[in-house]
Amino acid sequence: MREEALAAIQGAATLDALGGVKTRYLGKNGLVTAQLKTLGSLAPDERRARGAEINALKAELEGAVAEREATLRQEALNAKLASEAIDVTLPGVKLPSGGLHVVTRILYELSDIFESMGYRVVEGREVEDETHNFDALNMPSWHPARDLQDTFWLENGQLLRTHTSNMQVRYMETHEPPLKIVVPGRVYRYEATDATHESMFHQFEGLVVGEGITMADLKGAISEMARAMFGRGARVRFQPSYYPFTEPGADFAIWWDQEQRWLELGGSGMVHPNVFRAVDDLRAAKGLPRVYEGKTGFAFGLGPNRIAMLRYGIPDIRYFYGNDLRFLTQFKGDLSNETPSELPPLPRDTLKETM
Ligand code: DAH
């Protein structure tokens, strides 16, 4: 029985099977227990010798069971550890993440360039009134230039701003000179959509007002921006143009060395005295002092979409706002793949003002 029992214990492949073997030999009705029960019928001497023998067997089997149980438990644990093992040194699964839109990146880049020149970044409203979008910018209702910009009118008589120039008026209305601001933002035109026209697009406006500001300052600012955006060798060209809110007005282009051609970027000019007068009128109506008459300043407005189209060879402006990830993710849109130093600099929030 001893041999048989030890073999059964060793042969038990699972804890369950071992439990069965244990019951069979050492349980209340087990074989070893049954042997102990026969002791009563023996003579005292014999009983003592036989009792010791059976108890020794019992102890040996209990020890064997305990040992086998420990082995089986360890094996079960090892199997579990092996099957559930996690290699913490494997690279993690990268979840797709959002990114900055290509136009946002250009606006950040531009904002940062001008902030480094001491400009303040200002954002403004997109729902505007005629006064700030047109009249105060020397574009009264009878002015032919007003036909050049097709406007989305709202039912309450307001409009969606057709350019970021509205912020020239808004800012001067509540701030005194000297001032240097840039305004990134969305603008709206009621136009047929095609490869170069969208009914919503972005502009980047600049305004500098002070004492004795000249066209040379304007040229300096645009040249500085061009060098920062397109490299040290970038050249800027100004050509006379007409904008009601400037006198004189000029379009500017940047020499795109890589493609060996001029890239028309935007409009600019010296702030028209009528704009200063209109702003002072708006201030006076608010009980604020007239501080703009006699001042000089320059302004400019450019198209970030155009910069992106030329820089990245984007053939159609409608790609920008179509929200097609196949387009958007081409511009290092997945921030998780970028190290912070590769990201475009963020405008310093402390300088940012929303009106
Ligand atoms: N607002 C003009 C436009 O939308 C762009 C512009 C031209 C802005 C000349 C200016 C400027 O500030 O001086 O076409």
Automatic annotation (TrEMBL):
Q: Which PROSITE patterns match?
A: AA_TRNA_LIGASE_II
Family the UniProt entry places it in:
Belongs to the class-II aminoacyl-tRNA synthetase family. Phe-tRNA synthetase alpha subunit type 1 subfamily.
Record-level GO cellular component terms = cytoplasm
| InterPro entries listed in its UniProt record | aa-tRNA-synth_II, aa-tRNA-synth_II/BPL/LPL, Phe-tRNA-synth_IIc_asu, Phe-tRNA_ligase_II_N, Phe_tRNA_ligase_alpha1_bac, Phenylalanyl-tRNA_Synthase, tRNA-bd_arm
The cofactors named for this UniProt entry are:
Mg(2+)
- Does the UniProt entry include the keyword Ribosomal protein? no
EC numbers: 6.1.1.20
Q: Which residues form the Aminoacyl-transfer RNA synthetases class-II family profile domain?
A: 99-340
Q: Name the encoding gene, please.
A: pheS
Q: What is its main location?
A: cytoplasm
What GO annotations for molecular function exist for this entry? ATP binding; magnesium ion binding; phenylalanine-tRNA ligase activity; tRNA binding
Q: Which residues cross the membrane?
A: none
What's the source species for this entry? Deinococcus yavapaiensis KR-236
Compartments in which it is found: Cytoplasm
State whether it acts alone or in a complex, and with which partners, per the record: Tetramer of two alpha and two beta subunits.
Q: Indicate whether DNA repair appears among the record's keywords.
A: no
Q: Reaction catalysed?
A: tRNA(Phe) + L-phenylalanine + ATP = L-phenylalanyl-tRNA(Phe) + AMP + diphosphate + H(+)
Cofactor note (record): Binds 2 magnesium ions per tetramer.
Q: What is this protein called?
A: Phenylalanine--tRNA ligase alpha subunit
Name the Gene Ontology biological process terms. Answer: phenylalanyl-tRNA aminoacylation
What start-end ranges are recorded for coiled-coil regions in this protein? none
- Binding annotation for Mg(2+): 247
Q: What are the protein's UniProt keywords?
A: Aminoacyl-tRNA synthetase, ATP-binding, Cytoplasm, Ligase, Magnesium, Metal-binding, Nucleotide-binding, Protein biosynthesis
